[in-house]
Amino acid sequence: MPKPKARRPTPPRAHRRSLAAGGGGLGLAAAAYVGVDYARHLSPAWHGRLQPALWGALALAAAARAPFYRRWDAELRAAPRFLAAMALMLAAFLCEAISVRFVSTVLGLQWHRSTAPLPDTGQWLLLALNEKLPQIVVDLLRAPIISLHHYLMLFIMLGFSALFDCIKGPGLGIAARYMFTMAVGRLLRTVTFLATILPSARPWCAEARYQIPHHPHPWAQKYYAPYASDPDAIRRVIQEDMPYAFVKEYPGEYRPKWGHMSFLVNILRPTLEEGSSWYHFLKKASGGCSDLMYSGHMLVAVLTAMAWSEAYGGWISVVIWFLVLHSAQREIRERHHYSVDCIVAIYVGILLWRMTGFIWSAIDNSRARRLAKLDKAQNRLFRAAKDSDMDEIRGLLNEVELAGQERKGFSQRVIMSFSSAMIVFTLSCVLLAFTLTSDG
């Protein structure tokens, strides 16, 4: 008589919930966000109705889920790394803003007007494709489907999805990795574009954005301008390896009184028309008016795509990578950057994300610890089973289980206070990011 088939074990309830949560809800929410925001170009009236409704629904869902989230203790332990990464990122942005203003103003307005953009074969290719491709495809390539603030919001949604078990928590862990990687990428970018000043692909940018002097900074007058275009002068300065030319007489530089920040006067090169606040100068630096190798917009896009691919995967990650490529060709097409800036940003972003896996990883470390402990206890388990020593077996299995458990030690009141504060803080960051980056 044949034996009845054994019933397959039922997955644990938590695992089933995780699978259900990750079955596409996050991807649909992300697609809805991008689609609703694009509606501003199609129907501003519908966009005005749909966008607040979508954000309200997402905020309510996060707030309703928060009391049932089981990993607030892990979030609390990740908070110091998160705050440290945020401080490093803000410091990197400050350093970058100072450097952007410097490279945009040091050569003067006349240099921006007279210096031709670099030849860019990527721009040539896109112009050639415009002549060959169907018009509907060209219109799709030109469409402003996704911008900087979209990528930031997509990552924030990814971090919040830890509440719904869509990704492995803690959410602050992946946020810390994202900001740390962003900070390192921004600092590398600053060093790169400071090393060699490249002309903008938009020669009118400086005149439209800044009120800087027409003449070069005294540093450039001494070390660059006399040797900029004369081949004999360039040959002589190479041979002598010393500056030798007499610089022209230019009006003196404006020097506002900035107190402890006066050291920035020579770097930011302020003018009387632009005001007297150093913070105002840094805020106005924006994207700069020299080509900044590599693209900061593309770095944000690539890091967002890498985070989605590692933490969530699925069809939405593939879509985000296509959007990254779409953003890259738009940056080149609209001449915000040269092709090399976008290409370098893509592979630098990928490499940096791979290098910072020690901060947060999608791999279940607790499961790895249990397996390692089980491997070490294997021989002892065999001996205990051979001797029918059930107490020893139970003790060993308990050791294996404890090896995979996270440390506890926070009271419920501390955890609830922390969870409430983090939700309010993160939602405030969402609103600030949306407001400050809404123009791309």
Automatic annotation (TrEMBL):
Residue ranges of every copy of the Sphingomyelin synthase-like domain listed in the record: 288-355
A GO molecular-function annotation: ceramide cholinephosphotransferase activity
InterPro entries: Sphingomyelin_synth-like, Sphingomyelin_synth-like_dom
Alphabetical keyword list: Lipid metabolism, Membrane, Sphingolipid metabolism, Transferase, Transmembrane, Transmembrane helix
Residues spanning the membrane: 50-70, 82-103, 148-167, 299-324, 344-363, 414-436
Membrane topology term: Multi-pass membrane protein
Broad class of the protein's primary localization: membrane
Localization terms from the record: Membrane
UniProt keyword Lyase, yes or no: no
Any Gene Ontology biological process: ceramide biosynthetic process
The keyword NAD is assigned to this record: no
GO cellular component: endoplasmic reticulum membrane; Golgi membrane; plasma membrane
Pfam family, one: PAP2_C
PANTHER family documented for this protein: OS02G0543100 PROTEIN, SPHINGOMYELIN SYNTHETASE
Family the entry assigns: Belongs to the sphingomyelin synthase family.
Name this protein carries in UniProt: Sphingomyelin synthase-like domain-containing protein
